[in-house]
Amino acid sequence: MGYPWTEEILAIMARSPNVFTDIALYVNNVPPFMGRPLMLARNLGMARDYGVLDRVFWGSDYDYDESIDGYVSNVTYQVAWIRERLNKDMEKLGFEPLSSEEMDGILRKNVLKLWKQT
Predict the structure, then answer these.
(1) What is the pLDDT of residues 16-49, one digit of tens each?
(2) Tens of pLDDT along 76-108?
(3) Confidence category of residue 65, pLDDT binned at 50, 70, 90
(4) So what's the pLDDT on residue 55?
(5) How far apart (Å, rounded) are the C-alpha atoms in residues 108 and 93?
(6) pTM to 2 decimals?
(7) What are 95-104's contacts with CB under 8 Å, separation 24+?
(8) What does the DSSP 8-state code read for residue 56?
């Protein structure tokens, strides 16, 4: 999401309908990053406020473990965290939790829009 220029990318997205962004590296269980869950919750709340949440999607940015098992473990962790814990952090920061439709958008549907599959 343009870190550390997240607000700038959201402002660009608000006026540029063909600009998308991802949340790669915000949710990660592999050193050195170990994720930034509260930052992600804040940024998704801002994306909703800017009206661009439908152009934000999840992606598995890096494979820090050279084994396929490590990669699968990290992807499984990230998707589970988004589904099961993200809304708690959003509420903790005072944002409305994501609806199931918004969650499905981030995890699947929004990237299909980018690829013009929907």
Answers:
(1) 999 999 998 776 665 544 568 889 999 999 999 9
(2) 888 898 999 999 999 999 999 999 999 999 999
(3) low
(4) 97
(5) 25
(6) 0.88
(7) 95/41, 95/42, 95/44, 95/45, 95/48, 96/45, 96/48, 98/44, 102/48, 102/53
(8) E
Place of tokens 């959201």: 10
Query: What is the full DSSP assignment across 57-112?
Result: E-------SSSHHHHHHHHHHHHHHHHHTHHHHHHHTTPPPPPHHHHHIIIIIHHH
Token pair listed for 79: 């998707």
Structural domain boundaries in the chain:
6-114
Instruction: Give dist(CA 33, CA 111) in Å, integer.
Output: 24
Question: What are the tokens at 113?
Answer: 């829009």
Q: Say which amino acid occupies 85.
A: R
Which two tokens mark 110? 């929004």
Place of tokens 């589970």: 80
47: amino acid identity, one letter: A
Q: 10 Å Cβ neighbour count for 41? A: 24
The tokens of 107 are what? 């995890």
Contacts of 67 (CB under 8 A, 6+ apart): none
